[in-house]
TrEMBL record:
Protein's UniProt name: Anoctamin transmembrane domain-containing protein
GO cellular component, one term: membrane
Organism from which the protein derives: Cannabis sativa
Residue ranges occupied by any Anoctamin transmembrane domain in the UniProt entry: 191-622
Localization of this protein: Membrane
Annotated segments matching region Disordered: 646-669
Regions of compositional bias (Polar residues) in chain numbering: 649-669
Topological category with respect to the lipid bilayer: Multi-pass membrane protein
Keyword Cell wall biogenesis/degradation included in the entry's annotation: no
Amino acid sequence: MKEPEEEEQPAFEIGVVVPKRNNVKAEDLNFDSVEVLVREFRKLGLIVERVIGVADEFLKLAAPLETLGRAAVSLQIKKRTHIGVDLQFEWEEFEAFVRQPDGSLFSWSERFHCYQHLIYRIENKSQSAIILKHDGKELQWEIGECLLQKLKSESIVKDVFPLHDEIKRKKLIHSWALHWRDFTRQPIDEIYSYYGTKIAVYFAFLGMYTRWLLFPAFFGLTLQIIDFGSLQLLVLPIFFISIILWAIMFSQFWKRKNAALLARWQISYPIGADDGCKILGMEWGSLQSPIEIIRKWGTDNTKEKEVFQRNEWFGRIKRFRNDAFVILSIICLQLPFELAYAHTYEVMESDLLKFGLTTIYLFAIQYVTQIGGKISVKLIMHENNENTEKRADSLVYKSYIGIFYHALLHRSFLTLRQVLIQRLLVSEVLENLLENSLPYLKYSYKKYRIRRKKKQEKGSPCGKILFSSRVEKEYLKPSYSASIGDELEDGLFDDFLELALQFGLIMMFACAFPLTFAFAFLNNITEIRTDAVKLLTMFRRPVPRAAVTVGAWLNIFQFLVVMSICTNCALLAWLYDQEGKWKIEPGLAAILIMEHVLLLIKFGFSRFVPEEPAWVKANRMKNATQAQNMCSKQLLRTMSGGERAFAQGKNSNRGSKNVPSSEPIQEDL
């Protein structure tokens, strides 16, 4: 077997944190828990580097390619081959598999799963329990018990987390975070190789969305600069129709780009598959898998259909109950708060006070959203949910209640424009401020606590304690988690929620203030770079998540497009009917007809634009055909081989019984 080419020294990608200990006696080395853990890591083929920090000790882990390959075989990971077929990985046939865009054999997500498989499969395989020691205490490592989990439960292992690759990280800082020459250009392939599919897809979506915003931003800026006078009633409907067509085309062409990216990264993902069914182990969310159902209810074929139907409808009833609970909570708790804000805003005369009220409101809504999200997560954990991202719907929709109040009750374009501009400016500034300052403040506070504790231990306040090791600095940084908790989501939940809120504001009230698209365009240019800086410098390296599309967020965007058709038609009707007569005159009739036509276009345009490019579809069909042919040939070989073996067995039986081949064989009674 030809050995694969690999780096002389693999990069350290996993960090394990253990307490900093006093000098361990030589006679206790064989039983010291940390020393045993290090020996077990090395037995697996991992490279271990020990770093002594200010307060803790750190074990940096790296895996040679062969070690990762053996783990991939054990995990039965499927990878794309050079003939386009996904097959189970075999280390002896590594040359048959396609490499990643950066030249590595395994993606970051695959490597992380291999690390997890290796370090959490260290078990006591001896015939009796093993006595381990730590700082004078003894603990028993039971037969078949996971060593890492045991040490975690005893607080000997404090944390296990992914490490940044310094060479790749610095390269991304220069080519991505600090690259301002092309406003929306991003090294998507490098982001995919370093962070995995989910984060790469998010930044590809953000970049495409920002580029597409250039057209409505220029159109809206033109409407703001030029005074059309009496033609305003004609220009605004044209702008509105253009924006709706723009949004419809964006959602369809994003699906095509997403499919092209997955094809380029050699990731199989069937079109139309549910988002809860994901790569690497078929993650079904909290939905019970067929294997779990069979284990619970048995394998009686007569009951199989009934069991699956019961599980399906029971889960749907739970989701309906939880959705009803969330909606009623919004109506009973948040709606009065929203209406009080809207009414107070209307009665205030000072613009400065209005701006301050909006700032306080947005700070408050941050906490309300987090509380609602955490409650939703708790509810979702107890239901059979096909797609965990569906909980984002309620978090997005409720944020527009206050603006609907302004639009429906007061019918004032001036007031509505003031609310929109204040919300956009304050929310974007507030989000960027919180996103970039809170991680740094948390990191600084952790360093301050350690310094203070060490000075108290030494009893000497003089001298500054420096954190020199990179791994300790990464450990002190906060993890990239969602504000609603990290049980089901990572930090991308908040980033997508911010985008969805922005999209809803600029789309649903486009006719009231067309200039909002220009504000959104400028904000997103900054958002791309600040999000990159945040990921590369302020957070730990995120744990890769097995998601290959934007999931339910695209459904939310499409729902907001439908809502924007209704709200903008209502705004145009109010603008046309200044006196409030509500008579079906030619202008109002045209607006109503336009609404129905746009809704028809929205649902019919998906038929016109395919969700995947022709070359992607052709490659997928070719791969499927090749896989079918290969399986057919293998099956035929197996069948023919079995028949030959059966015939040889017959002939051998004849020879042993001295029966002529021309005579029939007597059955053995």
